[in-house]
Every structure is written in structure tokens, then in C-alpha cells.
Specification:
Elements lengths: L12 H19 L3 H33 L2 H8 L1 H25 L6 H19 L3 H7 L1 H24 L6 H29 L13
Helix pairs in contact: 1-2, 1-4, 2-3, 2-4, 2-8, 4-5, 5-7, 6-7, 7-8
């Protein structure tokens, strides 16, 4: 069965994400007792928002493949905008982290610093190459390599970030569970796609789905 990807109605996604980030920062500045408190509020809220956008972006293809529902195909077609929203959110997250680092000693271990910094670099590279012109300039194979390795790397960063606080925070525990469920979803969908391929059935974007 071949499923068409519906044309998304997602033109408001990026302005909506920007507006939400402005509201989050304004609420943090108004609700924090100090600069440190405000920075921590922004870090927590953008961490949740970035995680949600990452989950939507990486779940889009398997959901479209498994369900074939219109909303899932629309999400898949809107994935580029979702990824750019993730870049916006994580950019604010980075600014809040840098602000906090100027106010207090964070005491981050080297491994966390390197892995987390890598996550920001990967998001920036993927956002910068999220256009047809970038695909043409990089070449399709190099573009696919970046995006197919970048998303699993980000999954590791998000998962271990949430897992680090799961024992003490219900929010972190939920975040960890969601990331593990996302991995299970992708593995299941990939296995289904392979079985369908071996049986001669066509699937949506079989070559495009697993970016």
C-alpha cells in the first residue's frame, strides 16, 4: 500500500514556537526571584519544549508508516518546520545555560559538557541544512549521513539528560520513559518496514522515512 504525504498546514508552527518562547522567557523574568532563578526556569521549560519537538520530529516517519492516518502524514510533511522549531527552542536553552554559567559555578563534568555541546552543534548543523538548497549543495548522500546520524545522537543526549534526574524528579522520569518509547516505536516500525519490503509490499517513503 502506498500512502501519499498530505500537504501540511504548518505555516504557523515557527511563529507559534517563537511566540511561545517569548512568553516562557517573559514569565521566567517576571516569576523568578533572581537572575539565577529566571535562568533555571528558562532552562527547564525550554528543555521540555525541545524534547517535545524532538519527539515529534523523530516519531513522524514511523507514525506515518504504521498508521497511515492523515494527521501522521501531515506531521511527517511538517517535519522540517518542527526541526527548525527545535533549533529555536534549543538556541534559547543555550542562551539560558550561558547566562546561568555567568551567575553561578555549574560544576559540569567533562563528558556531559562534551556530549551536550555536541548536541547543540548537531542541532545547528541540521537546522542550517534543512532546505532543498542545502541538500543540493551537500549532496544527497552527505545530507542523509548528517541527518541519519544526528537524530540518534540527539536521542542519546536527550535520554541521558532526562535519565540523570529520573530518580528525583517525576518530570525527568516521564521524559526518560517518553524517549525510551520513541526508540521502541522506531525499532518496531523499522522491523515492520523490512517485513513489508521482503514480502513485496510498498510503504510510504521507504527510502525517505528513516532519516
Amino acid at each position: 500500500m502506498v500512502l501519499a504525504v498530505t500537504k501540511p498546514r504548518a505555516h504557523r508552527l515557527l511563529p507559534g514556537t517563537a511566540a511561545l518562547l517569548v512568553l516562557l522567557v517573559a514569565a521566567a523574568l517576571g516569576g523568578g526571584d533572581s537572575g539565577e532563578d529566571s535562568a533555571r526556569i528558562v532552562i527547564r521549560s525550554t528543555g521540555v519544549l525541545s524534547s517535545l519537538l524532538f519527539v515529534l520530529a523523530w516519531a513522524a516517519a514511523p507514525l506515518a508508516h504504521l498508521s497511515g492516518k492523515r494527521w501522521a502524514r501531515s506531521l511527517l510533511a511538517s517535519r522540517r518546520r518542527v526541526g527548525l522549531g527545535l533549533a529555536m527552542s534549543h538556541g534559547v536553552h543555550l542562551l539560558a545555560l550561558l547566562t546561568l554559567a555567568r551567575l553561578v559555578e555549574l560544576g559540569v563534568d567533562p563528558l556531559t559538557l562534551v556530549a551536550g555541546s555536541g548536541g547543540f552543534v548537531v542541532i545547528a548543523l541540521m537546522a542550517a541544512t534543512s532546505s532543498d538548497a542545502a541538500v543540493a549543495a551537500l549532496g544527497r548522500e552527505r545530507w542523509l549521513l548528517l541527518h541519519r546520524t544526528g537524530m540518534p545522537y540527539l536521542w542519546v543526549v536527550f535520554t541521558f539528560t532526562w535519565a540523570g534526574g529520573a530518580a528525583h524528579s517525576p518530570v525527568a522520569a516521564v521524559g526518560t520513559a517518553v524517549m525510551l518509547a520513541l526508540a521502541a516505536l522506531r525499532i518496531y516500525a523499522r522491523l515492520r518496514a523490512r517485513r513489508a519490503s521482503s514480502s513485496g509490499c510498498a510503504t510510504v517513503g521507504a527510502g525517505e522515512t528513516w532519516k
